[in-house]
């Protein structure tokens, strides 16, 4: 699992007099992958990573490395970024890293900051084996 910003948790703790009972275990970054494993009754390694903007690719790299080493036969790689409150926009805007165009122009002469975006993705990766002519 990939996790980066914690907008949902930060939104929940704004009212300190009404904190949900399971807020820590329900929104803790370290628990994200474990909640998925528990819900789907998955067995094996379960980890949450946070390397900033590169986390999705780092998670995929970890999954492929585990497949190649034989320590895993299949991996689920999930990632999400949801912008649920304005705090990160304010913080990034205050230090001038956001593009006034709202777009990222990577490796382009028009580059003037970066544009934030939301997304959720999950992929299942398995060891490759040549097609044998029959379905499993």
Short description:
With 136 residues, the chain is α+β, with helices and mostly antiparallel strands.
Structural features, described:
- There is one protein chain.
- With 136 residues, the protein is of the alpha+beta class.
- The chain has a domain of 83 residues.
- Strands 1-2 form a two-stranded antiparallel ribbon.
- The longest helix is centred in the middle third of the chain and has 15 residues.
- The radius of gyration is 19 Å and the shape is flat.
- The chain starts with 6 loop residues before the first helix and ends in a 10-residue tail after the last strand.
- The mean pLDDT is 85.
Helix content: 25-40%
Radius of gyration: 19 Å
Count of alpha/pi helices: 5
Structural class: alpha+beta
Low-confidence stretches: none
Beginning-to-end CA distance, first to last residue? 28 Å
Strand order of the largest sheet: 1-2
Beta-strand share of residues:
5-15%
The average pLDDT score comes to 85
Which geometry do the CA atoms define? flat
Features:
12% strand, alpha+beta, 136 residues, phosphoprotein, Ketosynthase family 3 (KS3) domain-containing protein, PKS_NRPS_Biosynth_Enz, two-stranded antiparallel ribbon
């Amino acid at each position: 699992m990939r996790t980066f910003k914690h907008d949902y948790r930060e939104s929940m703790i704004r009212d300190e007099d009404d904190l949900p009972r399971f807020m820590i275990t329900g929104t803790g970054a370290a628990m994200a992958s474990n909640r998925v494993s528990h819900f789907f009754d998955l067995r094996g390694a379960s980890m949450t990573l946070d390397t900033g903007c590169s986390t999705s690719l780092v998670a995929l790299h970890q999954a492929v490395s585990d497949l190649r080493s034989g320590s895993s036969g299949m991996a689920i790689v999930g990632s999400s970024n949801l912008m649920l409150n304005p705090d990160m926009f304010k913080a990034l805007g205050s230090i001038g890293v956001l593009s006034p165009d709202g777009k990222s122009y990577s490796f382009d002469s028009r580059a003037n900051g970066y544009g934030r975006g939301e997304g959720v993705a999950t992929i299942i990766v398995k060891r490759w084996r040549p097609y044998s002519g029959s379905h499993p």
